[in-house]
Amino acid sequence: xxxxxxxxxxxxxxxxxxxxxxxxxxxxxxxxxxxxxxxxxxxxxxxxxxxxxxxxxxxxxxxxxxxxxxxxxxxxxxxxxxxxxxxxxxxxxxxxxxxxxxxxxxxxxxxxxxxxxxxxxxxxxxxxxxxxxxxxxxxxxxxxxxxxxxxxxxxxxxxxxxxxxxxxxxxxxxxxxxxxxxxxxxxxxxxxxxxxxxxxxxxxxxxxxxxxxxxxxxxxxxxxxxxxxxxxxxxxxxxxxxxxxxxxxxxxxxxxxxxxxxxxxxxxxxxxxxxxxxxxxxxxxxxxxxxxxxxxxxxxxxxxxxxxxxxxxxxxxxxxxxxxxxxxxxxxxxxxxxxxxxxxxxxxxxxxxxxxxxxxxxxxxxxxxxxxxxxxxxxxxxxxxxxxxxxxxxxxxxxxxxxxxxxxxxxxxxxxxxxxxxxxxxxxxxxxxxxxxxxxxxxxxxxxxxxxxxxxxxxxxxxxxxxxxxxxxxxxxxxxxxxxxxxxxxxxxxxxxxxxxxxxxxxxxxxxxxxxxxxxxxxxxxxxxxxxxxxxxxxxxxxxxxxxxxxxxxxxxxxxxxxxxxxxxxxxxxxxxxxxxxxxxxxxxxxxxxxxxxxxxxxxxxxxxxxxxxxxxxxxxxxxxxxxxxxxxxxxxxxxxxxxxxxxxxxxxxxxxxxxxxxxxxxxxxxxxxxxxxxxxxxxxxxxxxxxxxxxxxxxxxxxxxxxxxxxxxxxxxxxxxxxxxxxxxxxxxxxxxxxxxxxxxxxxxxxxxxxxxxxxxxxxxxxxxxxxxxxxxxxxxxxxxxxxxxxxxxxxxxxxxxxxxxxxxxxxxxxxxxxxxxxxxxxxxxxxxxxxxxxxxxxxxxxxxxxxxxxxxx
Length: 859
What we know:
Elements: E1 2-5, E2 11-18, E3 28-35, E4 38-45, E5 50-55, E6 61-63, E7 69-72, E8 77-86, E9 96-104, E10 107-120, E11 123-133, E12 136-137, E13 142-145, E14 149-159, E15 173-178, E16 183-186, E17 196-199, E18 206-214, E19 228-233, E20 241-246, E21 257-258, E22 263-268, E23 277-285, E24 291-296, E25 301-304, E26 310-320, E27 329-335, E28 340-346, E29 352-353, E30 357-366, E31 372-373, E32 378-382, E33 393-394, E34 400-401, E35 403-411, E36 415-424, E37 433-434, E38 438-442, E39 448-453, E40 459-460, E41 464-472, E42 484-488, E43 499-500, E44 509-517, E45 521-530, E46 539-540, E47 544-548, E48 563-566, E49 571-574, E50 587-592, E51 596-599, E52 603-606, E53 611-620, E54 625-635, H1 655-660, H2 681-687, H3 705-735, H4 740-763, H5 768-775
Parallel strand pairs: 1-10, 13-19, 21-27, 29-38, 40-47, 48-54
Antiparallel strand pairs: 2-8, 3-4, 3-9, 4-5, 6-8, 7-8, 9-10, 11-12, 11-14, 14-17, 15-16, 15-18, 18-19, 20-22, 22-25, 23-24, 23-26, 26-27, 28-30, 30-35, 31-34, 32-33, 32-36, 36-37, 36-38, 39-41, 41-44, 42-43, 42-45, 45-46, 45-47, 49-52, 50-51, 50-53, 53-54
Helix pairs in contact: 3-4
């Protein structure tokens, strides 16, 4: 399934021939490349030490002799390496089946590789074919001016199916030819857009251009470019026909005189037989003496509003679609501003009114001197644009004069389609002279609020919100400086004062955007108010309620902060009371500063190792992450540094017996009398009395030295036997690996039993009273015996993710008197005073060391 590209590069082929006996039996190999209509055979001749094309009827593959590398490992393997190049005339693009036929003497082997590779021999143009006329895009069949330069570009040649595999420049050329026999070349366009330039010349012709690729086999280009046509326009448009200036409208037959500066221009088409008329140009000098040029598109009419008095002359000419300017024509009209003149109209058309009854005024002046006929002054109103006035109505003026001020109270509708105009005559009978139509803008309605964002009464993720609202007024528009807002994060009764929204410009529709920091929960409200340009009083928006996603509230019911437990104690963890007001799904993470991650459940239980644990619960709802912590102290169970039968100082008294009575177990003290009752500590030990209580002393004679020696000899023999038993058991375990599990289990149980028996013997010297003192927390606790290791059966393994149940507490060995289980004191107890009234100071506690059982590791 490899893809090769014809003439793009040499492709590496490699194969290995192996003879399981010796490489000398290998003679050579053939590679057969099968395609739809033929076969190509490549041959490796071991003796010739080369690879060559044995059969290629079409001559479409080429081996680079310098690339042939033939090696062997001198034992079984030949490796053949060479490169192959494919010609553009390779006959197919379908996948090629390759067959490797190796042979040697009577032996041969054939391996077939279906769809091993395919060869791409086709090309396409990639991009958007573009023609630029003097740098501007041009469509086919467009008109151009004579002498226009064209650039053909926008596409590049690539191998079919690729976007950046380009044939080399020596494989192809791109040419541009037209129907006039002109040819342009681009012979270096590999990897870039083609670039072919030409000039259309100065003849009025239709020219066909074709972009072609040479050098490629016929049909190799899959998407040849279509022909491109241009039409050359080399003449100017004619003179515009029927050019006239009208006094008061386009249809006004008065083309001689006008009494205002507003002139209406009309004309007919200019003769143009090629590219057509693009626009017309009007030239005139206005009332202030400024030369004006105006371009008119798509119309054959125009209004000049600043015509100069006197003979007003206007010039006109046409411009065709390729830029030719035609011959100039002109027309004129006489502007006479004498007679009656209307001026000083009030109010301004820029003013918006908040009432429909508007006072309008205008001054009427007589220029000729015959005075104004006051009763002839009338006005008309339109509420439907400047072309749909109602009947004329008297202005109520009953006087005459050269200048009269007319004031009327007119009634209009809301909107911008209100107009008023006036007319009057002079006393000589000229007229009536009519004023222009004056626009009156009325807006009696306030602004409208819409498109509030974000969504209301839906939970939003962030407390920082971009607030937006559209304030609109379809008439006078919104007064941007009047837009204000107020908001609260604690409910409606706690609104802030009105604040300026900071908008300084606007129009009929203004989008107000604010960035506010809101509070979590449902108590966020915001309200807007604004005025319009007309001056209507404030319009108030609704009160928008914004809900901000709340953080979870952690409730750690268990463990309580400051909890203290012994190790191996199962601790319950309970945060089921944790709440999230907006109902998000919560994720829990319990961690310890000692044990790292403990659980992801709200409720669970487990044991913790000794130490002061800072338990942290982190809860997230996907947006907020909160945490809370409690402290749990896990106390280690004391471990004594000796075995039940050990006697480090060799004074005949077991270390554990001396330790339990606060005697120095590291220094021989058999002859000491700790309680001053005239009996040595050793005599108290052999008599099972309390060596630190003067009221508890032996009631019988101390045994002889011989008996002591016999006792310790017996004890030493027991210890030796225990050690021998452990060594024998270990040796047997190594010899019998089949029964390793049962033997190890049995040995551990025997060791456990022996240790219990040794403990019982050691405790024979401890009185019931002393054991009672120990069980009630007085003194130092007895040692905790190591638990027998438990070998887990395979079927007892816990499933993934399930926690093991807490381990049961280890039982303590009872004394002969059935003493209760010893507790672990939190602090050293005070010594009770002796009969003599003096307190016996406690012995210095031995250094903390781990208890190491005989033959075992530290527990």
